[in-house]
Amino acid sequence: MLIKPPADIPSSEITPKGVYMRRREFLGALVAVTGFGDQLTTTSKLVTTSDALTPRQAVTSYCNFYEFGSAKSDAAQNAGAFKSKPWSVAVEGLCGKPGMYTLEDVLKPHALEERVYRMRCVEGWSMVIPWDGFPLGDLLKRFQPSSNARYVEFTSVYRPQEMAGQGRRFPALLPWPYREGLRIDEAMHPLAILAAGLYGETLLNQNGAPLRLVVPWKYGFKSFKSIVRIRFVEKQPLNTWQEANADYYGFYANVNPEAPTPSYSQATERRIGEFFMRRTLMFNGYADQVSPLYAGMNLRKLY
Ligand SMILES: Nc1nc2c(c(=O)[nH]1)N[C@H]1C(S)=C(S)[C@@H](COP(=O)(O)O)O[C@H]1N2
Ligand SMILES: [Mo]
Fold first, then answer.
1. Which atom of ligand 1 approaches the CA of 66 most closely?
2. Average pLDDT score, the chain
3. What confidence tens digit (pLDDT) does each residue in 218-257 have?
4. What is the CATH code for 11-294?
């Protein structure tokens, strides 16, 4: 199936390589982020690819969210019982302003931006998704990280009563709760966002309601869903997938077509909705923006 780029993105906004930013006029007050399918208002738009958007239907039905089960359709099917409000996020560790923050506290000062990003799963498929979110670094700075906070650890929700995949035992699907981490300079990079919506509506449960990370230059598993805790730490934290299978998953997990993983070359990918395979791009196409973060590091070893 061939999908045309949407007509509402003028070609002036599409730059295949660089990043093109256009500030729109402020469109009106932010709609409170309080429920399913609420319309969101974004104040700016960043389109980082000329590739066609993946249809909303695919983005919201073909999901990886092991808390609800390991099949792609499990999250959309089983996520109905999950309550994403009220919600709060605990902020801990090496920072000046630890505490419990309600979702409203977290979101209030940030204008939402639309970010059209490629997303590449380590399983060899990819999508192009229009997220609604704001830079992660803008939030982290509010908590005043200490100078020895070299990493940030993130934790996803643990609610086996509401999440069928977490109830599965002997063996457990994953060591819960799902944890991820970034080096502090990665977390502060302007491309790393927290998304509260996609396609202009609040996130559905299966996509990580009410708030999830999106780091577009890394494999999809780094973009953890349904955040409940942020912790500033000195040492590199252990992320869940690395804990589950260290031969396959690393901490950095930067998209790298030249670094094969045990069961897949990673040189190509299948864009959901397309027939032919595409070549995978270094850092998922964001090398111009993010490669300085990894100067001097052996990238082949860091998947
Ligand atoms: N909490 C949590 N976050 C998660 C996952 C998960 O199982 N649990 N799966 C990851 C993987 S492997 C991918 S590819 C992306 C998929 O995001 P999407 O389903 O919204 O497209 O979410 C990531 N975030
Ligand atoms: Mo993934």
1. 7
2. 89
3. 999 999 999 999 999 999 999 999 999 998 899 999 999 9
4. 3.90.420.10
Delimit the domains of the chain by residue range: 11-294
The CA distance from 255 to 189, in Å, is 16
CA distance 139 to 196: 13
- Ligand 1, atom 15: closest residue by C-alpha: 220
Which of 221, 241, 249 for mutating ligand 1's site (highest number of atoms within 8 Å of CB)?
221
| pLDDT reading at 28 higher than 80 | no
Distance 168 CA to ligand 2 centre (A): 20
pLDDT of residue 299: 85
Burial class (CB in 10 A: 0-12, 13-18, 19+), 170: exposed
- Distance between CA 219 and CA 281 in Å, rounded? 12
C-beta separation of 89 from 227 below 8 A: yes
User: Distance between CA 127 and CA 274 in Å, rounded?
Assistant: 10
Q: Amino acid identity, residue 20?
A: Y
**Would you state the structure tokens that stand for residue 112, as one six-digit string?**
């939402």
Give tens-digit pLDDT for 143-200. Answer: 999 999 999 999 999 999 999 999 999 899 999 999 999 999 999 999 999 999 999 9
188 contact partners, CB below 8 Å, separation of at least 6: 136, 137, 140, 141
Sign of CA dihedral 142, 146, 152, 154: negative
* Among 163, 200, 211, CA closest to 67: 163
Using pLDDT thresholds of 50, 70 and 90, give the confidence band for residue 22: very low
Which tokens belong to 192? Answer: 């790393």
Task: Give pLDDT, residue 263.
Answer: 85
